[in-house]
Design a protein that fits this description.
heterodimer; A: about 100 residues; mainly alpha; elongated; B: about 170 residues; Four Helix Bundle (Hemerythrin (Met), subunit A)
Chain lengths: ~100, ~170
């Protein structure tokens, strides 16, 4: 049964990587990153249930906290970038490059 | 047997809704299908006896983070001309899936060949809030404090970013 959980986690991680690489909408890119974190959490919980060790559950609790702080930063970035550019296209957000000063 | 059937249903829901999430054009559709993915992953946590993580997943992910995303989507009032025109979106998705498939096939093959299915004896209060809390404040107290500093830094950073005028 552990192998089924690990395979599901690999499939979800691959779907997340596909969404992260091939989309240009910045909100979808953010949700793909969250999907990667969730796939890792799922495999950690499966291993923890299999070994009867709750350290992996604490690890995934810490990962959830990191995802929460990432969410706060991403939301303020969305607001700032949308206010400046008026779009959600990730290709327009090269604001640190030379041509914009 | 009942667990296997439940696992199959939940895995199917998670995979289908995450595929819908990465391929939907409007961000509101992606966010709503991502909620379905998160809740089915939370149900898988419950199936693995991780009751505390089940509650945390539903409260923090489906409750806080996703409602924050929905709030931002509503707040920005996104119209069709604000979205990137991804003319070749389906072609990109197909090409990336073809590239990523061999790597995940190798990983799945490795998992199937390995002998990791060691079924340990699960104790009574495994995965409850007492068990996880005792581990968190015992062995893992330093990472816990570091995460609290990280959350503070993220709070200050997001306030500073959103107050900028330029």
């Amino acid at each position: 049964m552990l192998k089924a959980y690990m395979i599901l986690s690999i499939i979800l991680f691959s779907i997340g990587v596909v969404g992260l690489v091939s989309r240009r909408n910045i909100i979808v890119i953010y949700m793909s990153i969250e999907l990667l974190l969730n796939a890792v959490n799922l495999s950690l919980i499966a291993i923890s249930a299999d070994l009867a060790d709750s350290s992996a559950q604490v690890m995934s609790l810490i990962i959830i906290a990191i995802a929460g702080s990432e969410a706060a930063l991403f939301m303020s970035l969305f607001v700032v970038l949308f206010r400046n550019k008026g779009s959600l296209d990730a290709n327009l957000f090269d604001v640190l490059g030379d041509k914009h000063g | 047997m009942q667990n296997e059937i439940l696992f199959a249903i939940l895995a199917l829901i998670a995979i289908v809704s995450s595929v819908v999430m990465i391929s939907a054009h409007r961000p509101i559709d992606s966010a709503l299908s991502f909620i379905v993915t998160l809740i089915s992953i939370a149900a898988l946590f419950g199936l693995l006896n991780a009751t505390f993580l089940f509650v945390v997943q539903i409260i923090i992910y489906a409750g806080a983070i996703l409602s924050l995303i929905l709030f931002i989507i509503m707040f920005l009032n996104i119209k069709d001309e604000n979205l990137p025109d991804e003319k070749y979106k389906n072609r990109w998705l197909l090409a990336t899936s073809i590239i990523i498939t061999p790597f995940s096939a190798i990983l799945i093959d490795l998992i199937l060949r390995s002998d990791i299915a060691v079924k340990a004896v699960s104790y009574d209060n495994f995965g409850t809030i007492k068990d996880v809390g005792l581990t968190l404040f015992g062995k893992w107290v330093l990472p816990f404090e570091l995460v609290s500093i990280l959350l503070l830094v993220a709070l200050v950073g997001s306030v500073t970013l959103s107050k900028r005028k330029d």
